[in-house]
Amino acid sequence: MEEKMEQNEAPKESSGNTNYWVIGIIALVVVVGIIWYASKGKKGGLYGTPAAAPSQSSQSATQPAPNGTQNQTGSAVTVKNFAFSPADLTVTKGTTVTWTNEDSVPHQIASDSGSAVSFTGTQMSQGQSFSFTFDTAGAFPYHCAIHPTMHGVITVK
Length: 157
Ligand SMILES: [Cu+2]
Hints:
- The chain has about 160 residues and is of the alpha/beta class.
- The protein folds into 2 domains: about 1-60; about 75-155, Immunoglobulin-like, CATH 2.60.40.420.
- The chain is built from 1 helix and 8 strands.
- The strands form 2 sheets. The chain has a 4-stranded mixed beta sheet, with no helix packed on it. Strands 3-8-7-5 form a 4-stranded mixed beta sheet, with no helix packed on it.
- The radius of gyration is 35 Å and the shape is extended.
- The structure holds copper (II) ion (CU).
- The site of copper (II) ion has 5 residues, from loops.
């Protein structure tokens, strides 16, 4: 009987100690939280608006986004359904334009006879591509040598 009494009392004491620990830890967390929040508020007041610093990155977002994701430094034109997409592409000087044929029939990029820059590729089967780097500013019309009704323009600035 006496042993049972001792066993019952023991958990009571330990649980009492545990409660003190929990209260102490909670109090510590609250105090640290208040100090952290106060110091954060002070910094914001001293240094003004910290959100103004990283606004410079939005200025360089004028580059045309390529259709595909194959080449990072160039621009992509998709040849699909007997059409160029985009048919009118504007790039900066030095940009490599890559045409990729997604049709089951072959296509062939060919600059128009009046174009100041000549760029004519070989026949592209499905999945094949042709690349040309434009180093001269101007508007350069092209077509498909196999299907003369397909037209496109590369504008270099
Ligand atoms: Cu074609």
